[in-house]
Write a structure and sequence with these properties.
This protein is an alpha+beta fold. It has helices at residues 16-27, 40-45, 51-59, 104-110, 143-146, 162-172, 207-214, and strands spanning 64-78, 85-93, 96-102, 119-129, 132-142, 153-158, 176-189, 193-198, 219-224. The radius of gyration is 21 Å and the shape is globular.
Length: 225
């Protein structure tokens, strides 16, 4: 008797962010990309540097930077003199991993934000000495807040079929945001022409939404306005 194949439940594919989270949990590092990859253009528009940009600038004497990263670890310690807690926070960006020391006053202000797994933008002071660059944190905020209004909107190129459009509409439910960006649907038609449809309202355009849009049925690619 031939064994029957087990019936597997139908599930939505992981978003790029979910896939990267699973890679990190399984092997300890990102395999197919980095959670901030899609945000780099918006971060640069907000004058945010990646680690690879900062190192040569710090070695040349620059000290104040705005950086971004995903928090990997936070290790808190107590000062022997005052008893106050400070923290060493390890962050990862698309160009590498680095550690930032947050002194007590900065840690008190940012502790709730500096949670492992969160994407953040930080303000740091860099000190280059003896071929090594050390970072000291002054402030932090969620990356979504830091790049708010950095992107005017998205052009979502789609296959013009009703089933795919309905699936895309479902993805967009619940993410309207009066301070967000526009979404324009773009579809190719006969004769090499394109039609554009601007969706009503404005939308949150964080990495989770971008990832969900990219894997929606019928979406060819997504680009910033």
């Amino acid at each position: 008797m031939e064994a029957q194949r087990p019936r597997l439940p139908k599930v939505d594919p992981w978003t790029p962010t979910q896939r990267l989270d699973e890679e990190l949990a399984a092997v300890g590092f990102y395999l197919s990309g980095h959670p901030l990859d899609d945000m780099v253009p918006a971060l640069r528009r907000k004058r945010t540097d990646l680690l690879a940009d900062v190192i040569p600038k710090a070695e040349a004497g620059a000290e104040a930077f705005r950086m971004a990263g995903v928090v990997r670890r936070r290790q808190e310690r107590a000062s022997q003199s005052s008893g106050e807690k400070f923290a060493f926070v390890t962050l990862s960006d698309p160009t590498g991993e680095y550690e930032v020391m947050f002194p007590p006053e900065s840690l008190r202000k940012c502790r709730d934000i500096l949670e492992p797994g969160r994407a953040v933008c930080i303000r740091v002071r860099a000190k280059a000495r003896d071929g090594e660059v050390r970072f000291f944190g002054d402030d932090a905020e969620p990356v979504e807040k830091a790049i708010e209004n950095a992107v005017a909107g998205l052009r979502v190129h789609v296959v013009p079929r009703s089933a795919e459009i309905d699936a895309l509409k479902a993805r967009l439910e619940g993410i309207t945001n009066s301070r967000g960006g526009e979404i324009i649907l773009v579809a190719s038609i006969e004769g090499g022409r394109e039609i554009e449809l601007k969706l009503p309202g404005r939308y949150t355009l964080d990495s989770a939404v971008r990832g969900a849009l990219k894997i929606s049925p019928g979406v060819v690619f997504v680009e910033d306005l």
